[in-house]
Amino acid sequence: MKNRPANRRINRKEGGFTLLELIIVVIVIGILGSMALPKFGTITDTAQINVDNYEDAAEASQDACLEATSNNTTICGASTDKISSGN
What we know:
By secondary structure, the protein is mainly alpha-helical. It has helices at residues 19-71, 80-85; strands at residues 74-75, 78-79. It has a two-stranded antiparallel ribbon with strand order 1-2. Strand 1 and strand 2 form a beta hairpin.
């Protein structure tokens, strides 16, 4: 029988992360997230402004087309007579 010391450590390589490493990762993700959220809010506000401007421009364009059609005038270089008659 071999003599084994009682306080001998078993040299076993264990995989995984330590608790400290996981805490550091969570802290870094939290810091990055806190920096990104205000920027995201600004982006969504800007996008809403762009949508509102697009809707206003589309409505103005439709109004111009309706007015040109009712007056039998030209719009964008095309005669409304040709458009309405299908020629």
